[in-house]
Request: fold
Amino acid sequence: MQENKPVLVVGLGNPGTQYARTRHNVGFMAVDHLAGADAVWKKEKNALTTSLTLAGHRVILVKPQTYMNNSGMAVGPLMAFYKIPLDNLIVIHDDLDLSVGAIRRKMGGGSAGHNGIKSIDAAVGPNYHRIRIGIDHPRTLGLPMSPADWVLGRFDDTQIAAINAAIENLDLFGG
Reply:
């Protein structure tokens, strides 16, 4: 991370109340938690943003309003506007291949079929920080459901408890 530049933390999700508490919206849930209940969000560059200081870093929290598959349409313009280097981008998103509530970090890499990540990769390149939050895979759970239907489904009470615990312990700048 470049210490003298802001950090853009993008939570991926879909806008609208119909998508609240869905598996695909764990990124939104994470940035909402980081922002706190009193956050004031403003509309800019196809996104909702709010700023704060975390661990000595100026952080701009972002919820793209473009829907998941077009997240890059918000991330690219915000990075250009705030002159944020790629190394200062952190994207928080759902991951089907991790058990519910598991968190994995990585730098760069492929999209693993995640359309929000594909869109951001196309807009800014793939070499940014990613925080993946597990949502399980219907196949792993023995459920006869497509991944597309699964990600747009809502968490049950046990799953949301695991997600909330993961988000509460989220460390943006940890190892």
About this structure: Residues 30 and 167 are 6 Å apart (CA to CA).
